[in-house]
From TrEMBL:
Protein name: CRP/FNR family transcriptional regulator, anaerobic regulatory protein
All residue ranges annotated as the HTH crp-type domain in the record: 175-249
Domain of life the protein comes from: Bacteria
UniProt xrefs under Pfam families: cNMP_binding (PF00027), HTH_Crp_2 (PF13545)
Keywords, ordered alphabetically: DNA-binding, Transcription, Transcription regulation
One function term, GO molecular function aspect: DNA-binding transcription factor activity
CC per GO annotation: cytosol
Domain Cyclic nucleotide-binding: 65-113
Amino acid sequence: MPRSSVVPLRETLPADGASAVACPRPAEVARGPCGHCDLGALAFCDGFAARIVSRLSRVQCTQRFEPHDTLFREGDPGAAVYSVVSGALKVYKLMPDGRRQITGFFFRGDMFGFCLDGTYAYSAEAITPVGVCRLPMRRLNELAETAPEVQHRIMGRMTAKLAYFHDHVLLLGRKTARERVATFLLGLAERARRRGDPWSPLALPMGRTDIADHIGLTVETVSRAMTWFKRQGLIDLPNPSSVSIRQPDALRAIADGSAEV
């Protein structure tokens, strides 16, 4: 079970079915409508009318997890969706023989946990200390029925995720090792820029093993590609958890398959 701490808002969650991570009765009540959330334009509720934000705040709670804590496992009842308030986490699927495919990394403002058949299709694990906003799916659907802007926001988040997965299928199916690593680094940099975080030096909270399991390579191949990029003057590696992108255009040419290497 995860070693999570919970900061519910104003009142406890209504019953919404079984959940891998439930929000228990509050020990303390967070101040402010969203538990001191500072996501701004990244927040799921950004721009909603006050009445909608009020309804969301009555059914959501914030939770905190430590590195390696599991938020939920593949096959658990999909009782809630989550919005990342702070930190980084990964979602993955396991094969019967134990092999793992990391299907995504999530950061501030990202949402995950959407499911179609009532159960989670993947497991979610914290990489760093993580804060999330937990929204019961049944209550969110009820609100969406009377607030079209909520439904539109949900569809927008799901559509963006689908577009990302299409790009990732291309990466796994057609790109070389160096093209995959370059695409991964540039993708993280672009996401950091959109969040308002530095894109260079770029934080790499995940380890090389996680990167390898995400882009379908071995750890050794990822490390060799990183070292080659460094030798070519495309990146710097000041420490294992960050990378400085020195020549983004040259790295993009490699990612696109148009560079002569």
